[in-house]
Amino acid sequence: MGEITVAELPRMNADEFIVVDVRDGDSFSYGHIPGSINVPAEKVFFEEFPENKKILVCCRSGIISGEIAEKLCEKGYDAYDLKGGYAEWLKTHISDFSRDTASEIEEGLRKKFSKKLFSKFARAIVEYRLVEPGDKIAVCISGGKDSMLMAKLFQELKRHNKFPFELVFLVMDPGYSRENREILERNAKLLNIPITVFETDIFENVFNIEKSPCYVCARMRRGHLYAKAKELGCNKIALGHHYDDVIETILMGMLYGGQMQTMMPRIDSANFEGMRLIRPMYLIREADIKAWRDYYGLQFIQCACKFTDTCTSESCKTSNTGSKRKKTKELIARLAKEDPEIEQNIFKSAENVNLSTVIAYKDKKGGKHFYYDED
Length: 375
Hints:
six-stranded mixed β-sheet, five-stranded parallel β-sheet, Oxidized Rhodanese, domain 1, Rossmann fold
């Protein structure tokens, strides 16, 4: 078993090797080396590969690919470890962009993607009263496609300068791997987003939590973002949740939580006085975000957790919330194939609630009111 570096890939004869990406299917669909095939790690030893080709094994950051390549060699394949994995390739890919990429993307938001991205962004801001004169907004960037696009849309909104407001592009490092931190910073530089980074040790603190570690991590990250934003003089934090997140949350609440609720476009913080969370991507479809990403050949980090490749606990491999959201997403996609109105109807259901036709509802303080209370 040998090693192949990312720098060597362009010099290799494409007919003589295949890149086998052993990450999960979601990660692969989010971004991968062009021409690679996806065979998740748990299935790779049951797969039959061409015996006349070199097998280049690629994982997220080169942590488990070496061991897999070695075992494939034991089975008789000419297998190699792709050193540094997808993360190393991604850093090289980002470096290949020209200096004009940011200006091209900004122009695209005004022209090619104006209707599906910027117009919906501006509409949500007006319709849900998300941005007001005098606001100082912490635009929270995780490094993924949604938050990076949100930052560019905010920059475009600021360019219109219809009323005064301030922006801080805030990145919280909860313990990113070196590769993820570098990719995030390179993408920010590529897109001309002036980020402010602060560090925490959240990943280390939640690593040994067996029950719902992703939920605990998300709650802790939200709290740190509020605290840092307030310290910087901000009165709002902006998150990159989109239309698809909203409808998935509505359906998940019904199917798994036994309640009717939605992901609100804005909400006041219960723990940080004077702070408000806003979701200006509320009306933007995920498919349109992906179209924007793919049109410019952009690649972003997906799961920023540095333990993704090595975590073996069941809760780490199949987050309960994550698996439920994935199932809900797949269910909505199947239903939408039969009836294109399904997604819109789910979204509208949260704003067309008729209290006279529900058995009970909860008020803001959690008090429960039944339909017969006024009899």
